[in-house]
Amino acid sequence: MVPRLYDAYQDSVDIVLHIGVAPSQQHYSLERSAHRDGYDQHGDIDDKTLDGDDGSRYWPDSPEVLSTSLDYEAVYDAWRSNLLRTPEVSPELDGVVVRRSEDAGHFICDFIYYSMLAEYHKRRAKSKHIMEQRPVIFLHVPGQSAPADVRRGRLVTMALIRSLADCWMPSKE
Fold it and tell me: What number is the average pLDDT over the span 33-52?
């Protein structure tokens, strides 16, 4: 028997960080929310889409939009601060732009992000003893792949991971 993809997270209180490439953007964006529907509007690289009702069929008991339960503003502020105050990172980050985002793109990235948020939402719905935790976040990175761009992306991501760790304090019931 093959375990489901998210079974490993069943009893977890870990942070889940998804990273997706946004080829047309020149900045790094931290996504707050993801959408259940709308995956028939934008195609993937081969212009393929999902059916318009796929989201509500996959997640019939989930709301149209789910957001991270992490303190998004604190994570974002800590991320920017970490990027500015880390001496070994700052010279490499000249011109790096980081942004908040409410739209993960209504396709692959948004779908993946919503999938994980919905798993946490579904787990909460099944048990009144589980807190409403969705410690999931999504980072969009630019699509440039030159060695300097990849090195910069690694440093930006490491600063975000430090910020997530600094801001994450599992709640105790």
Answer: 85
